[in-house]
Amino acid sequence: MSSFVRIAPEVEEALAGGAPVVALESTIISHGFPYPSNLECALEAESVAREEGAVPATIAIVDGEIRVGLARDDIERLSTDKAVLKASTRDIGTVVALGRTGATTVAATMTIAGRAGVRVFATGGIGGVHRGGETTLDVSADLEELARTRVAVVCAGAKSVLDIGRTLEYLETRGVPVLGYQTDEFPAFYTRTSGFRVDARVESPEDLARVLRVRDEIDLPGGEVIANPIDPHDEIPPAEVEAAVSRALEEAALRGVSGKAVTPFLLAQIHEITGGRSEQANKALVMSNVQLAARIARAYQKR
Ligand code: PSU
Ligand code: MN
Predict the structure, then answer these.
(1) Which residues surround ligand 2, an ion (CB under 5 A)?
(2) Is the pTM of the predicted complex or chain greater than 0.90?
């Protein structure tokens, strides 16, 4: 890879030896969770990957250097430094060139993971078409990246701050498979249900890995959304979620929040409105996604 990229020795070794690796994003650390739960969540996600036999590769841009696999110091800095940028795919070149520090979104993490040769990535939820996106054109770059970079994204669906129906339509148009892990319904992050169906239900990490291998072999472009519903014990009642989402959206409209600030603003509002509740659910679903991603990565490497 280019001289702008530094792959951690442990990750490099795993990739060279065909051992399972799971990519992790960093926007969730810097802009998705408050401190200190962001730090706890980032460290725990790495431990979960390891417990499942995969090497974690948390991705970020640190002082202009693209990093695949972070040291603890870096994770601490991403958790506490308010100046860390939110870096999506279009920002990578600028952040590197100007020597800045950026937490990578799902889109940017996929771009980097794909180039580094990491096939499986775990996060909380993907970005999507925002409510009202048909007029604002606020559509996350995550969806574009899913259409072009062959990295599987294990997530708990998309938050109901988004227009889930249009998000799924967009993914269909762009040729991105949406696979439900042991579910027929696309989950909505805090809730197991959204009222929308997945394209295909897949029962095991082995079958999911088989789908990835077939897509590799046929040389199909783009990645896959692997939707893993939140555990029933961690779920938040839909009515409670909807109330929090409505209030968060009202507040965003009132303050005229726009552009890349929208998603972090809504997440912070929801965390505030629901108290610790959404944070706890968010953390639980991330761990469940990392666990599943590690199992898929293991099955994918086993031939
Ligand atoms: N959804 C979540 N939590 C998050 C994000 C999305 O439930 O932290 C983050 C991810 O990094 C995602 C980004 O890639 O927000 C999407 O931002 P935007 O809508 O600006 O593309
Ligand atoms: Mn946007």
Answers:
(1) 138
(2) yes
